[in-house]
Amino acid sequence: MVRYGELSTKGKNRKNFIDRLAFNTRESLHSFSKLIIKANRDRMHIQLNGEDSAAVMKRLGQVFGIQNFSPSVKVKRDIELVKQTAVAMIKEQFTEGTTFKINTRRSDHDFELDTNEMNDLLGGYVLDSIPEIKVQMKKPDITLRVEIRSNGIFLSSQTINGAGGLPVGTAGKGMLMLSGGIDSPVAGYLAMKRGVAIEMVHFFSPPYTSEQALNKAKELTSKLAPFVGSIKFIQVPFTEIQETVKHDVPSGYLMTVQRRFMLRLTALIAQKRDGLAIFNGEALGQVASQTLESMVAINDVTTLPVLRPVVSMDKNEIIEIAQKIDTFDLSIMPFEDCCTIFAPPAPKTRPRLDKARIYESRLDVDGMIERAMDGIEITEIKSDQKFLAETNDSFAELL
């Protein structure tokens, strides 16, 4: 039994949010073929039909828009059957000194007993059947939740917190500039938590960046896919641009001009794919290219919103989230991406916008952008896909 979080506040739009949550849940649980998922106005029910409940709940805990959920038993609207089921469930968890309470909710107000009568009836029956157990209303060891609905009565004694947030896709689509580092996957996670459907934009520069670096970015994408089901991965060839910028732009402005190209390309991709914003993993002051002056010089190339979910976090806060979403160990694997190759020894921390424009004006900007756009490849990545299996083994040996 799945309970919704913020969706309860959505008024007339609530159905749209629930429909999207149901779609995302089915996508995220696509590998469990026997499940039957039914999303109603106030609850979602997932019938296991023999699937591994622990595995299903682990994946369900990653779906944004879910407040909490409970493994439940559904019985007919028969009082005797409910009493027997309640006792059986509590006996499974009972040890000496255990306390309990019954918490009944009744969405079907035509049922013969109200909530207080049901609490009293079931509580008395449990006390008669398990004499050693005690009632405790505040913080009992076991809370047996009983939900009376028109299609049956649901009993549960465990509540597991969900991911919260909003269903991915209800806040529109954005492009995430995905490097191979720690910060950008965390930024993507936080964007999805607020309902944004993200597509990954990854720049690669062969032969300077390896196939392993590209696969690392794809596997990072697969780590985020359970939150929505699948994510589009857009790989953009960047070799010509990086070589040209390195050759023709002064060293101090190399990073600034390079990132202006990245942002231009991402904005064009967003325009073609109905994206409404660009997300990245920039944290203010963390590196030379992430000062306010740098952001002004780089943002100059687009009018799209450039959103930075981790902008005010320190590194430890970002690492904590990366560990929580299981991207950290992958992010620190030592495969260089195009953000780290050709890095100048002394990049400008306060680049001037007018100088960045002047240096860039000497380049064939339109031609390089067009050729990069022509070389784009798009793949769909689902959860649990592996791209670095062999490399992980060899990396473990190095450690």
How is this structure best described in words?
It is elongated, with a radius of gyration of 26 Å. The model is unreliable at 391-399 (pLDDT under 50). With 399 residues, it is α/β, with parallel strands linked by helices. The protein has a 6-stranded mixed sheet with strand order 15-14-11-12-13-16, sandwiched between helices. Strand 12 (197-204), helix 6 and strand 13 (230-237) form a beta-alpha-beta unit. It has helices at residues 14-28, 53-60, 79-93, 115-129, 183-193, 211-224, 239-248, 254-272, 292-299, 315-324, 328-331, 353-361, 365-374, 389-398, and strands at residues 2-4, 36-39, 43-47, 66-69, 72-75, 99-106, 134-135, 142-149, 152-156, 160-161, 173-177, 197-204, 230-237, 277-279, 306-307, 377-382. It is built from 14 helices and 16 strands. The longest helix has 19 residues, at 254-272. The chain folds into 3 domains: 2-71, 2-Layer Sandwich (VC0802-like), CATH 3.30.2130.30; 74-157, VC0802-like (2-Layer Sandwich); 173-382, HUPs (Rossmann fold).
Distance between the termini: 43 Å
Number of separate helices = 14
DSSP strand (E) fraction?
A: 15-25%
- Overall morphology: elongated
**What would CATH call the class of the largest domain?**
Alpha Beta
Give me the CATH architecture of the largest domain, please: 3-Layer(aba) Sandwich
Q: What is the string of helix and strand elements? A: EHEEHEEHEHEEEEEHEHEHHEHEHHHHEH
Report the CATH topology name of the largest domain.
Answer: Rossmann fold
- Quick check: average pLDDT? 90
Please give the share of residues in helix. 25-40%
Unreliable runs: 391-399
Strand order of the largest sheet: 15-14-11-12-13-16
| Main beta-sheet annotation | 6 strands, mixed
Structural class: alpha/beta
Number of strands: 16
Protein name: Probable tRNA sulfurtransferase
Pathway: Cofactor biosynthesis; thiamine diphosphate biosynthesis
EC number: 2.8.1.4
Pfam families: ThiI, ThiI_fer, THUMP
